[in-house]
Amino acid sequence: MKKSVVVILIGLTSGLVLAAAAEAQYRRGNRYNAPSFRIQLGKFQPDGESSYWDGSAFDFDRQADDFEDSVLGLSYLRPLGSRLGLQISGFFYEGSEDLAYVRFEDQFGGDIVHTTEVELAALTVGLIYNFTGPDAALVPYVGAGGGLYGWRLAEFGDFIDFDDPQLEIFEDSFEDESEELGFYFTAGLEVPLADTFSIFAEARWDSAEADLAGDFRGLGKLDLSGRSYSAGLSFRF
Predict the structure, then answer these.
(1) β-strand 139-160 against 169-194: which pairing, if any?
(2) How many domains does the chain have?
(3) Within the chain, how many helices (H) and strands (E) appear?
(4) Most buried pick, 20, 24, 163, 194, via CB within 10 A?
């Protein structure tokens, strides 16, 4: 992942914690006005709706669904009213799979295998709407927004040279990375356990797409979209 994206996410997290701590001096105990800091952990599954994923599924023994892996999210929520809030969030996902050619083997009858890694780091801003208000025992909510999606795609291991009549097997590595704009929708349920503490569960769908370049030039588009399901803790200050 590009260092610039990582630096943005670290700076965002530090800034949000400091901002929440400062506001705590005069908002403590008032759930209606209090901002909150959230941390969550779950699973992210790529949608795989693009030419890169289609080609990979045709040539190898894995599909986009096989890249489901853990996602870590951090967010800051500032109320704009009794049911509306502004949310600044970031998440990080990394999926890795070993892929083997489905129609070719090496000279010993073994699999020809390489590893594919996909990384995604998002920095987004959006609105959250609570259906029942902050004082309810259960707070269902929906949200939407957009932001910057930093990504990295890498492949390393053994490959076949299809330009060679002998279909030579060679070892190499390929990589591409960039940032794209995208958007998301989310829905969840928060359960307040105290004025300053809640638990929540959330489903989220992110949408972004990249034109492959660098070592993957000519392979079309990479779908960065995916669904995530997570649960976490919310702390009000």
Answers:
(1) antiparallel
(2) 1
(3) 2, 10
(4) 20
